Every structure is written in C-alpha cells, then in structure tokens.
Amino acid sequence: MKHRRIAVEAALVAVALVDGVLSLYRYGALEIALTVIAACGLVLRRHLPWASLLLALPALYFADGPTAAVIALYSLAAATGSIPALAIGGGAVFVGLTGFWLHYPSVNMFFIFTVYALMTAGGAIAIGLLQRTRRVLKVSLAELREAREHELERIASEAAAGERAHLAREMHDVVSNQVSLIAVQAGGLQVRSEDATTVATARRIRTLATATLDELRQMVLLLRDGDPQGADLAPPPSVERLRELLAEQDLPIESRLDLPEDLSPAIQRAVYRTVQEGLTNVRKHAPGARVRITAAADAQGLLVEVANSPATEAPSEPLPSAATGHLGLAERAALLGGALETEPLPDGSYVLRMRIPHYQR
C-alpha cells in the first residue's frame, strides 16, 4: 500500500510537470519555474492541502498551468467538508480558469471558458467530496462490523453462561446426589460388614465416591463462575498425583514413569487423563488383565502408553458409556501438537498410546 501511494503521488507530480514542459514554446523561465513549483507542491496535498493549492495558484494565474491547481483543489475537497473553505478554494481556481482579466474575441468564447472553468472546478470538488464520503463510509462500516462482532460475542457469551448454569444444575441435582448416595451406602456397608474383603471394597468405593464428589463440586463451581481463576479449583492432575493414582489401584500394574516434575500443566493433565482413561477401560473391558504403563519424556518428545494383556475374566454387566473418552484424549493430544493411537491386538491385548512430539516445560 505504501509503494502504491508513492507511485500515485509521483504520477500526479509527473503529469503536472508535463503540463509545464508542454508550455516551453510559449512562456519564459519564470512561468516554467511557477509550473515546477506548483507540481512539486502536490507532494504536500495529503497533509497540507491548503499549502498545495496556494503553491499551485500562481502557475494557474500567470503560466496557464491548470493541472496542479485542479489536483490540489480535489485534495482539499477530499480532506475537508467545510463549505467556506471549498467556496474560497473553488472560487480561486474558477477565476484562474476563466481568466476574466483576458480579452475574449466574442461572448460565445467567454461563455465557453466560463462553463469549462465551472465544470473543471466543480468536478474537482465533487470528486474530492465523493472520495471523502467513501472514506468516511468505509470507517463507519468497519466500526459497524466491529460492533456487530462484539454483539455476537456478547450473545454467544450469554448463551454459553446459560448453558453452563444448566449443566451445573443438572450435575448437582442428578450426578452429585447419586454419587453421594453411593458414598453413604458404601460407608454403611463398611460399618456393618464383618468380612475383611467386603470392608476393604466398601472403603475403596467410598473413597472413590468422595473423590468424585470433590471433582464434581469443583466442576460445578467452574461452570457457574465461567472463570477458572475465580473458582476454588483443586490442584490440577500432576505427575505426583499420577503416582498416587497408580498406588490406589488393585490391578496388577507394571509402570515406568520417567517424567520431569516441571512439565507444563496442560502436559501433566494430558498424561494423567490418558493413564486414567486406560485404567478405566481395563476395568470395564478386560478384567483380570495385567497392565503395563509407560510415561517417559526425552529430547524427541513425550510418550504415554497404557497396554493390557487379554482379559482373564468375563466382563461384568456393561456400564453406561458415552464413548467419548478416546475422543476427548485425541482432542487434548491435538491441542498439544500430538496424536492419540489405539492398537487392538489379535490376542485380545490392547494398547492406548499418546505421542507429543514437542513438549514444553
């Protein structure tokens, strides 16, 4: 855009200079000098249109060089909408174009020069005002478009806030109440039962239900506030919590964790959720299977792998599932520049793998 503007300005100056060069055979050095000054004055037309017009008027009056004056008058009209200013500038150019002080051989000739002057000066002003109006409309259109975008963002934000509030109510009224009931009944079973295995199982169910309630509470707060900074969230999943998760499992697990402690929160959350999803799938679809977990990071990237052997027991009654666990993990991996892979093997084994080529600490 800058180079285009420079080219346009140079072309206008060149046209005005040609107007003076074509007059060499009729005028002397003074007239040529006035024409050159008028042409060079066009350089000021965008920022100082009045100065450009004043520099062009001597050439119009004394050297018969109208080009620079007409261009300067157009620039004045494009820069200001002041009627007095345009009347003064247009009148000066009109008088210079008509040459009232000259002797015309006939009334018809005088009339022709007057109409020519009126059309030339008036046309320059009209085109300049049109350009100014176009510029103003362009700015107004941009402001209107920006206001419309802000309004759409506001409507979308209000709709999202309403949906978050609805989800928060549903989670509290349905999910939280049912999980609370599970925790209460597990606690009662833990107290009433005399079988050590049943007591341990009930204790674990109560612990898991309590942890789930805590996460649900944090999620409800987040949904209602709509601002992660404003909600009193629990610590995000981390490498240390991953070790705690593995220690709580009653599955035969072989693990190799080689992760730095200073990984970014997004990376740590992705690692934790991948392992958590893999363990959940093993419990649901491959009871009795052995599990091998690898989570390692090196210069080439980060690898999280949850692999299980074939099931040794028949799966229990299937639990309700939205089948979105892998989809959510794939989205997490994509946001981090990585990918999620699943590999069911012919012998019934299964591998869940997330790769992140370049990770940030």
TrEMBL record:
Instruction: Please verify whether the record's keywords include GTP-binding.
Output: no
Q: What is its EC number?
A: 2.7.13.3
Name the InterPro entries for this protein.
Answer: HATPase_C_sf, Sensor_HK_TwoCompSys, Sig_transdc_His_kin_sub3_dim/P
Transmembrane spans: 12-44, 50-76, 83-104, 110-130
Q: Which residues form the Signal transduction histidine kinase subgroup 3 dimerisation and phosphoacceptor domain?
A: 163-226
Q: Which domain of life is it from?
A: Bacteria
Q: What class of enzyme is it?
A: transferase
Quickly give the catalysed reaction. ATP + protein L-histidine = ADP + protein N-phospho-L-histidine
What GO terms are given for molecular function?
kinase activity
Q: Per its record, how is this protein called by name?
A: histidine kinase
Keywords attached to this entry: ATP-binding, Kinase, Membrane, Nucleotide-binding, Phosphoprotein, Transferase, Transmembrane, Transmembrane helix, Two-component regulatory system
Q: Does the keyword Transmembrane helix apply?
A: yes
The record's Pfam families line, in alphabetical order, gives:
HisKA_3
